[in-house]
Amino acid sequence: MQNFINIFTHGIFIKHAWFVLAVPFLSFVFVGLVLRPLSKKASGLIATLSISVTTLFVYGIIAECFLMHRVPSGAAWQVPWLRYQDGLSATLGVLVDPLSLLLMCVVTTVSALVHLYSIGYMRGDEGVGRYFAFLNLFTFSMLGLVVAPNILQIFIFWELVGVSSFLLIGYYYEKPQAVAASKKAFIVTRFADLGFFIGIFILGYYGFQSFSRLGPTVPQALSPFDFAYLTSPAFIEFFKHETYMIFGLSIFSLTLILVFMGACGKSAMFPLHIWLPDAMEGPTPVSALIHAATMVVAGVYLVARMFPLFVASPEALGLVQCVGTFTCLFAATIGCTQDDIKRVLAFSTLSQIGYMMFALGVCHGGNTLGYTASLFHLFTHAFFKALLFLGAGSIIHALHTNNVWEMGGLVKAMPITHLTFLVATLSISGIPPFSGFFSKDEILLSAFINHQYLTFVIALLVAGLTSFYMFRVYFLTFWSEAKWHGHVHKPQEASWTMTLPLLLLAVLAAISGFTPIAKWIFYTKSQVESHRLFFVPVFGVLVAAFGFLLAMLFYTGDRKIVDHVVLKFAWMYGVIKHKFYIDEVYLWITKKVIFRFIAFPVAWFDRRIVDGGVNLAAWVTRKTGWLLRFLQTGQVQTYGIWLVSGGLVMLLVLLTL
Amino acid sequence: MLASIFNSPYFYPSIYHWLVLSSALFSIGIYGFLTRKNAVGILISLELCLNSGALNFVVFDYFRGNHIDGKIMALFIIAVAAAEVVIAMAIFVGMFKHKKTIDVTEMNQMRN
Amino acid sequence: MLPEIIVLITAFTLMFVDLFLKRETRYFLMGIPLGGLALAFISVFFLSNRKSFGGQFSLENIDLWLKVFFILCAFVIAIASFSFILGESKETCHKKQIYSFEFLTILLFNLSGMLFLVSARDLLTLYVSLELSTLPLFILTAWKRDALSSEAGLKYVVLGALASALLLLGFSIFYGLTGTMDLVLIGRSTNVSPLFWFASVLVISAIGFKLTLVPFHMWAPEVYQGAPTVVTAYLSVASKGAGLVLMFQIFFRIFGASISSFYFAIALLSALTMTLGNVVAIVQENIKRFMAFSAISQAGYLIMGFLGGFHANSQAVLQGLSRTHPLIALSMMIGLFGLAGIPPLSGFIGKFFLFSVAASSGFYWLVAVAAINSVISLYYYLRIVRQMYIEPVLETTVFPMKLSMGGLLGSLVVISVLLGLVPVFYETILWTWKN
Amino acid sequence: MQVSCLVFLPLLTAFLVIMTPRRFSYLIRWISVFGTGLHLALTIMISFLFWAEAKGDGELLRTSLVFKLHLVEKISWFDSLGIQYFVGIDGISLTMVVLTSIIIFAGVLASWNVKERAKEFFALLLILVTGVFGVFVSFDLFLFFMFYELAVLPMYLLIGIWGTGPKEYAAMKLTLMLLIGSAFILVGFFALYYGSGFYTFDLIKLATANFPVDFQRWVFPMIFVGFGVIGALYPLHTWSPDGHSSAPTAVSMLHAGVLMKLGGYGALRIAVFLLPEGAKYWGLFFMGLTTINILYGSFGAIWQKDLKYFTAYSSVSHCGFVLFGISALNFMGMKGAVIQMFSHGIMTGLFFGLIGMVYGRTHTRIISEMGGLARVMPWLATCFYIGGLASLGLPGLSGFIAESHVFLGGFFGHSLQSVGQSGALMKTFTLIATLSIVVTAVYVLRGLGRVFQGPIENAEFANLEDAMLSEKLSTGILVVVLIVVGLYPSILIDVIEPAIRPVLNRLAGGL
Predict the structure, then answer these.
(1) Residues of D whose CB is below 8 A from A176
(2) Most CB atoms within 10 A, among A188, A359, A653, C148?
(3) Residue C181 forms part of a structural domain
């Protein structure tokens, strides 16, 4: 045992941190180019194996950090990659610090389990090789994102996860909805990335400006894009005092807001949330990995990564809080009305990420407990939400439908799925001692102690709503009477490759709340441990219980109650069910405004006016020639007149010059 | 009396008289060229123009030192003009065969 | 003046022999003009720089090259006209009359006129040789004796006579102003006066007529259209070459000292000519008329060469071009070769030099106009290319190419490519010039 | 000698092709492939030679005001007029030569199916490419111009004979517009020739001339706009959609991939380099114009129904980046412009190659008539998507390297070098131009989605075949280059960077 522990005391894992990126990448290339055409089975196997190895490696790093009681500062491994200019270059590297370790742990663990799950879930599909290659690509990109030591690397991998998400959502490329959803996802996030990109410009710009001026407070080895530099007090001080104002905002806040725009896009915050529900067109394991556990929390990660900057700007952080709170409530409301199990989960994801966001946002009140709380929730959420999705995937796999009203009665048929789903549901509802309880409690607490009472109340309300819609799904799926009796074959548990991940995740979802995250991840250590209020968790649990009871009332007994309520609030129900018509608004903007009023006129203008101008010039030339040819009258005396008068004009020209 | 008239410098035409004459010739020639419809008429007008040139040479030769070269030039001009007329007439005849007229305003088969 | 004499003797020989031989045996007569021209060609290179007839006939380096050019042109035209003479061409509507070598005799007379023109150094020689190089062209134009040909001849002769009258009046005024016939002496002793401008305009009009500069170009389309095709080719190359020589004689020998005051006029004529020529050429349907307008536009480029950086130093002018600016001489030669067809490479370099001359005097706007015009002209050249390459081939229009014609075209292509790329040619001209 | 080989090897190949009797059409193709392949090998060899020679350039050029050339050949030609045969290679040239070499090789492979008058086709293609190589290596303006014309003229026949659609109109428009551009260039060159007072066309020697500021201010736009026509500068770009869509595959590849780069190359190499004051005076104006270019092209592309028009508009947008970077007049911008030239060259070459291959199968280029082709031609679809992702600037592919450079250059603008342009305006232009990354994503994904994704709508398409070997090779090379440059950008940047320095030093007023 001691020998085993000794392995982790040399710092080998940290030193070779590049391994974390290299393995998934090589596996992607290998699976994509070599294995894909050869063997479906081998593709899945190798892909899963490589991610598992990566996962173990990450655990190794964590163990090292844990055992050595020391977290390396700065990037563990770094290579120069792109040199823009002297003093302005981008590196590729692996940053090992508590935050990145947390994310690495989440990403690799969930990814490995999802890979394993996919072997069973995707069996029999035509393009399994492609699927696993993309999944590897995603894992690689996501890891690259979370280990990025500089903002440019984040952006690079940010885009790459976007593209892998695009590829995976559109995996069933013959399904028009999937194609549309993948396009939508990519374009919406791309639009958000525009803000992020501009934010990077501005950060880089001021970073570059101050780089030489700040002198010895900044280590020489850094470049203006490095987080170590951007979050250094010297730079923040410099940037904060930049007096340039736009729209009444200082350029500092504006930049952070632009960066937050990118985060909003990726994390599907209102109003850029529209892509996430549609993204459920992808294979369910993909939804579990990308659209629940990892990629969508990248926005939270980004804000957390740049937290020192955000803390310095109450405006930006206030916006984070507002957006987070609103999305949280908004998505939860919609979640109550959806019939597609994956969509319910998608809106639940939105709502939960809203929690994480506002937890970060409330920190402008002065207490930074929210930082820890947010990341804690990120951690626990990853497991229970992945579990929910994988469970949903199991059900869909068995029933071939997404509609919760067409399910029911699965308790007996799929006991493992039921059990794990229940664990996850309890966890997300915040029922102790499941993981969600702890993290949600901390978020509520952070809102309360920062005196953000409105946010606190909304958060409580949403906790109730969460409990309601999750149990709604739970009851409808497992307990209501079965509607699938007409099916040819009875639903049953799938192979072990699918149930094993469920079980493992269920364990994690249950116990991850006990992880002493706060010990490692904090912004100000003292603030993390100072407050403990008794009534906050009590309220939380009570509200959750209320939601649970309401769901039980509605969905286990007579359907009349539900119908009655729905009829009573028909108008509101309709609006919520249609997701507040946000999609329609977007559609109108893109189809009508952008396509009709910009793209079409531009195309028309180009063909008619610009090109017409060119053709006009040609036409004028021809017409002139056509007119001039009639000078040639054929009359010899006219020619003589031309000759003589030409001479006279010539004389005039010569005499006047 | 008569002798004095003959001897008077005003009796002998000066260079200006000659130049006026040649200018008149030239102008008449051009006018004729532009207005006559008959090709031969045009040719005659052109001969006037040529002759005005020849006259100029002779006059300048006479008034500016009497080197022989201007006069020789005049001779050549006459010869060349004769050649020109021959050729032109030949072409006119050829033209007449086709058109049965030598009205130049009719000769606009090629135009535009 | 060996070449001139040889050409004249050949012409007379041909005329007389032609009289005494039977129609069937005349085929062999082909040898006479070709042999004579070849002899003349060779004899050019045995000439040395000297003056004869009291300076009225002299020979400088550029003259040598010009003569070579004219003899070559005549040679090519002579070859090309055999089918015409021997009545194989469809154009021969009156076989009986045309079936004779008089055509070549007249061509040779014309050639001798041009050769004399190059070496003329006084007004008399200039005038007579110019007429000698013009009058035969009237005959050649009307050679076919059909309606079109005759009409063309008529227009040509009438307007030609008018131009010649204008020229003569101009000459006479120059003579009156200076009292001398010698071109260089005239140039040296003129003062700028209204009368001088008047005379210049008269002379420029005549040059414009010969070179088909707008607005003196009106005869050209009709004449080019009506004349036999061989004559059209000859007109567009040799006759225009003669015009260029005339312009050269007048501008550099008479106007030499004050040439810069003519720059704007030249630039204006050049711009007008190339633009009108090109623009009207686009809409022509008749191929020969089209060629006429295209040739008119070419003339616009040619006279750009006269914008060259001439220093207003009469001494320099007197000593000939060699010591002033090699570019002008070069551009002139290139202009001439450019007239002989616009092959891609030598045409490109030629135009490049011509434009360069205009630019050297600061006429950048003219360069722009010229370059844009060359794009317009490219439009119709490309249309011809399209006819040749892109349009489907009609079987009936395929005609076998004769060996002589093919060889001729092939060698022209090779020559033009060589002219374009091998510096030796240009450098030799420049070298002979400088020494 | 090596550089001359580089230029004239295609000409020799063309000669061999001409000499081959028409009935051996296979032989003609093989000769072309072999010739261009040999050329590619030669290019790689020269790259290594250059590498070896140019090791110290980085430091040397940091303060230099003139380009440092390698493998120079200088022979006096028309001596009395100051015209030389002067060729050499520097970083920018090398980049462009490599690009051309790759594209022509891929292009020849992609036109394996040309059966109609194959001999003339390959001969003209090779002659054209001779001109392109000539332009990229010549440092004498006369030579430059001559090669430039040589590169433009064969285009007429290539499009006119082997094209599709309104080919004659397109060919004529393309040729005439490009030549009108070259008319402006010519005027500019003469102005340089006489304005310098040196009476030389030698670029290096001209760089030592002191052009007066007023002179620079009117000559610069002449040359820049002249090159702008071929670089698709708004509003002189309209030849490009018609031309590209009518041209046969290899010609579109070469034209969009390489010929359009002549514009950016000339603008940088000649206009900005020789006339820094003029560049400073006009920089912002052209930056504004190219901003329009970038957005206009991408918005225009959204609405296109024909795949080739679609790509052509995207080219207009992407070539806008080249000129945008150049008119930003700073290190990153210009470097980005050169990288963009390379990257866009490869990318658009790939696009047009693929479109040709798809068209060869479906016989339609109308986007709405296709659909679901990914099922039957996965190789082509994959390549198309990689190209598309590169064009929307996905990191890891070459497009991102170029675009991020250009944007950073535009945004950092005046803070880097003393360029004297208004920083606020430059930033504004840049921010407006960045919108294009979204619009590009929109049209690329829309277009590709319609062609390749979804169910196969037309039953005839269900049995089409994927790429054959020559096509796979052709597209594969291009894809690999896109990825290699995207992952390891130093391979380009190390070559380009030193070569940009002199331009920048002159702009910085180091006269």
Answers:
(1) 454-455
(2) A359
(3) no
